[in-house]
Amino acid sequence: MDMHFIPKLTTLWCSIAVALLPSFVPVLARAGLSEAELWAALRGGGHVVLMRHANAPGTGDPGNFQIDDCATQRNLDEEGRLQARATGAALRNNGVSRVAVRSSQWCRCLESARRMDLGPVMPDPMLNSFFSNRDRARPQTDALRAFVASVEPGSPTQILVTHQVNISGLTKVYPRSGELIIVAPNDDGGEVIGRLGPFQGGDGRGFRSLPGKRR
To answer: CB 3.0 to 4.6 Å from 32: which of 2, 104, 212, 213, for a disulfide?
Structure first.
């Protein structure tokens, strides 16, 4: 992997936003929207998709983990590769084309993002796993909350491919591999409005509503 293209998280807006937001406050959830409403929200932009990377058997990473060497990491299996492609197909088939894609620098996240084939993928250290380094949980969660809060109404839907610990740290939701957690930004960081996937086909199958929503 060519590490020269990986951007550093040094933008001024993020530092300012982190300072202004309450520390380590979870993004709240409200009763989930219907499937049609979720797809409409994503088509309209101004929302954030937190995607747990597609299926990669195992837990954590090997002891010899190196961020620039996929051979030292957990990687997608064939199910995960199919799942990632199906996720991209589901988004396109439901008209979600105006997107910006960011990914953890971990190989399984980058591969998930690229196999969705939605456009350029920007590796972002903010989305890296802190599973083995819990000292990173607070600053990365604060940075993620600030990023979500900064998304403007009507702007391209932000698709962030990351890890279970990162998504749970922000939302208190435990996502399955390949699942999409849909967040509506607000001044407090955001609000979970529903869940989609995991996808096994390109026709939009895999919808999950939040508890308490009648369908």
So the answer is: 213
Number of structural domains (the chain) is: 1
Residue 17 maps to a domain: no
The three-state (H, E, C) secondary structure of the chain, written as one string: CCHHHCCCCCCHHHHHHHHHCCCCCCCEECCCCCHHHHHHHHHHCCCEEEEECCCCCCCCCCCCCECCEHHHCCCCCHHHHHHHHHHHHHHHHCCCCCEEEEECCCHHHHHHHHHHCCCCEEECHHHCCCCCCHHHHHHHHHHHHHHHHHCCCCCCEEEEEECHHHHHHHHCCCCCCCCEEEEECCCCCCEEEEEECCCCCCCCCCEECCCCCCC
38: domain CATH number is: 3.40.50.1240
pLDDT per position as a tens digit, 151-201: 999 999 999 999 999 999 999 999 999 999 999 999 888 999 999 999 986
For residue 92, the enclosing domain spans: 26-208
Task: Specify if 20 maps to a domain.
Answer: no
Residue 12 lies in a domain: no
**pLDDT tens-place string over residues 110-148:** 999 999 999 999 999 999 999 888 889 999 999 999 999
Question: Is 134 part of any domain?
Answer: yes
